[in-house]
Amino acid sequence: MAKAPKILGIVLAGGEGKRLMPLTADRAKPAVPFGGSYRLIDFVLSNLVNAGIRSLCVLTQYKSHSLDRHVTITWRMSTFLGNYVTCVPAQQRLGPQWYQGSADAIYQSMNLINDAKPDIIVVFGADHVYRMDASQMVQAHIERGNGVTVAGIRVPRAEASEFGVIKTADDGHAIAEFLEKPADPPGLPDSPDETFASMGNYVFSADVLVEALRKDAANPASRHDMGGDIVPMLVAEGKAGVYDFKDNDVPGALDRDRSYWRDVGSLDSYHEAHMDLVSIQPVFNLYNSDWPIFTSHPQLPGAKFTDNATVGESIVCAGSIISGATVDHSVIGANVIVLAGAKIERAVIMDNCKIGANVVLKNVILDKNIEIPDGIEIGVDPDLDRERGFTVSKGGVTVLGKGQVVKP
Ligand code: ADQ
């Protein structure tokens, strides 16, 4: 029997997430809370750990403190059998510059590859909500003999200019062309309104990645980006293939969430992805115990509902108390207090917020530690929300940053 390949996982977690401001004012995008009790990075780490890939380095750079703290507390693993999840901050090992791009982040961390001596390097982004068995992608990579395998998914053409776009060769597996974030993404022959997009998840044969990174580092014209430079280089060399996400079969997946993948890169997509969690038959099912999404929970009592509170289609986390209020289609984090007469609809409320009596919140995102005084309405009049210094997204979601003060 052939020896099992040695796999090193690298999670790119240095992204700034500018389009998620103000949620990323104080933290890296992968550390942004999601779904009440998770951080975005929990999804990729769960996907890798559940797939048996347990030698994992998380490359961080931008405002990494809460990310580092979360990974350290949540993802401590037994080091027996080589299991580890370790955060690696930018260290200026090669000179006085920070990471110039995602490829440079790996190039500057070459010592991790030299130490682990892997056969295969799995490089995944940290910004998405999905379930994926990464071992099935590794298997396809080995069977097809690719240098790099890029995970691909069909997305609406209108959204594809945010993504790397893949054109496959006639065999459907080799990548003939890769366009990073094209202004006018091409449609698919069988579906003109859809495009085949890169999910930002790659499996590399280790020697191919190391050689590509060295060549890229020596190219002064490169932006040192995985999607912008490394993948196109390997496509030009004929070494790149695609892995269609629809072929991924995660244990316990339901028909409706089998191919669920959301890039929660904007405030609107972040809000919509929360709404995907709360319906009676959610399009993304957090309750699949065959492929758990792991996180760490604070030590708190269960959520409490008093004084005829009405709560429907919502997630309410531990330590929260909803008293005489109405909550609908919302995700409420830990230690949140909601007082009588408040009406909350399509809201994402993070930990330690206090919502006063008779407050109205509609289509809002409240980051942690916000106190809303009695009787205030937010999300009802966008112009008033802007005047009060709140962010209003393109889609009309009002967003308050961590600890933002709301005047009575
Ligand atoms: P983007 O997400 O726009 O596109 P990028 O900003 O490089 O690309 O982020 C990719 C991942 O790398 C994220 O997890 C981010 O946190 C991380 N990252 C970014 N800069 C980093 C740095 N300097 N150091 C460490 N980590 C860093 C990418 C691909 C597209 C693909 C989309 C899918 O380039 O081809 O379609 O992901 O969302």
TrEMBL record:
Keywords: ATP-binding, Carbohydrate metabolism, Glycogen biosynthesis, Glycogen metabolism, Nucleotide-binding, Nucleotidyltransferase, Transferase. Involved in the biosynthesis of ADP-glucose, a building block required for the elongation reactions to produce glycogen. Catalyzes the reaction between ATP and alpha-D-glucose 1-phosphate (G1P) to produce pyrophosphate and ADP-Glc. It holds the Pfam family Hexapep_GlmU. It is an enzyme of class 2 (transferase). Residues 9-277 form the Nucleotidyl transferase domain. Its EC number is 2.7.7.27. Pathway: Glycan biosynthesis; glycogen biosynthesis. Homotetramer. CDD domains: ADP_Glucose_PP, LbH_G1P_AT_C. The record marks Q61, W98 as: Could play a key role in the communication between the regulatory and the substrate sites. Residues 304-399 form the Glucose-1-phosphate adenylyltransferase/Bifunctional protein GlmU-like C-terminal hexapeptide domain. InterPro entries: ADP-Glc_PPase, ADP_Glu_pyroP_CS, GlgC_bac, GlmU/GlgC-like_hexapep, NTP_transferase_dom, Nucleotide-diphossugar_trans, Trimer_LpxA-like_sf. This is Glucose-1-phosphate adenylyltransferase. It catalyses: alpha-D-glucose 1-phosphate + ATP + H(+) = ADP-alpha-D-glucose + diphosphate. It comes from the Bacteria. The lineage of its organism: Bacteria, Bacillati, Actinomycetota, Actinomycetes, Propionibacteriales. GO terms for biological process: glycogen biosynthetic process. Alpha-D-glucose 1-phosphate binds at Y99, G164, E180, K181, S198. Belongs to the bacterial/plant glucose-1-phosphate adenylyltransferase family. Signal peptide: none annotated. GO terms for molecular function: ATP binding; glucose-1-phosphate adenylyltransferase activity.
